[in-house]
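Handoff note, outgoing to incoming analyst
You'll be picking up this chain. Sequence as last confirmed:
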Amino acid sequence: MSPTFRSDAYIDGKWRAGAKRFEVFNPATQAVIAEVPDLGAAETEEAIAAAHRAFPGWAAKAAKERAQIMRAWFDLMMADIDRLARLISLEGGKPLAEAKGEAAYGASFMEWYGEEAKRAYGRVIPTTTPTRRYVTIKQPIGVCAAVTPWNFPMAMITRKAAPALAAGCTIVLKPPHQTPLTALALAELGEKAGLPAGVFNVVTTANASAVGKIMCESNLVRHFSFTGSTEVGKKLGAACVGSTVKKVALELGGNAPLIVFADADLDLAVKGAILSKFRNAGQTCVCANRILVEDAIYNAFSMKLADAVPKLKVGPGIEDGVEIGPLIDQKAIEKVERMVAEALASGATALTGGKKHPAGAQFYTPTVLTNVTRDMRVNTEEIFGPVAPLIRFKTEDEAVSIANDTPFGLASYFFTKDVHRAWRVAERIESGMVSINDGIFSNEVIPFGGWKESGLGREGGVEGLDEYLESKFVNFGGFA
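Most recent structure output, in case you need it:
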């Protein structure tokens, strides 16, 4: 049974139909599941203006009052978690169990930041002269704009919107054209929770460039947040700084290494590699993109992984027990096919998989590749599919060198029983997040973000709230 859902945009507390609409597809079947408004520059400006009008009133509310609304929103999300999970699975293809996990993960940001709203502390600075007193206060930055991706259609919204709203900001959101329905369901629950009109706005569109241009160049928008490709993020970031010098947060591409040292617990490493590599069919920015295995255990690890991977159940995400759903669109499946074909032609071997899956046009068989070299694209570029390339290394220095040989630095993983090595490698790896002996680490309390070309700023944790606050220094002079 399909979940019920909203299919109109949400601007200034009103549901907007729009004369022009675009289709939303189920990636498992390519069936049309909805048509939503295809809005443009004019509607985006209208949404920004609404957020600007709503900002003073929302910012003036006591932090506790904002927290109460956010808590009500969280409670509504958790009470509606089954419908939300089915909707995430229906429009994004994610397996139902993962979708339910994402819905709870997304809700957790509302709970966490509602609580953190009451702790946006300033400070008193010891004076340099008896005639002055120094303090700092933190104030909301203003109207915020956000562009979110399809692979986490709920969590990537709440990870941006929750800290913004907790800080006292208002927000205009452009969800991806592949998965707009989850964003609209979130707006529906926010309305029920008591969000004032204009505080949270959702602009649906198939013309991302037109909407993004307005968001980047508007002098009413003071903060712009984007999750997506590095190529697009660079352009949007430049447009924001070049037009109005607004604050920018960018969560961009990754090329995460997962290193397995010879002293690792092999069963734990295999389990961690599967969790990290094959979650959402490999379509996450923190997926283990390449797996580096020490020479002494390379064959043993390869065989264990190749034995476990074919047991993953492939099929439409909405079906019970499915662990690997479809890729998001035809372009995605073609990219994975190309990258695997290039690797095989260059000497790699598919221990399992290496081809499309008979479940449907956008399904790819979970794949393990051995004899992968550093120059292959499956090592140098983000795959975004269920393909695990295994690269051999001999020393710790070599492993760290391979791991860091990329312009990206979002997440890294490694498995070892040596606590000294754990500290050493964690400090040497160039990435914003490092996970040791664990294939999954994301939650609401930790700072999420990357080094190098993987982005700017942090989301989650106390750092995420600071992104939406301006620090103001106040000098009290004239003391006798």
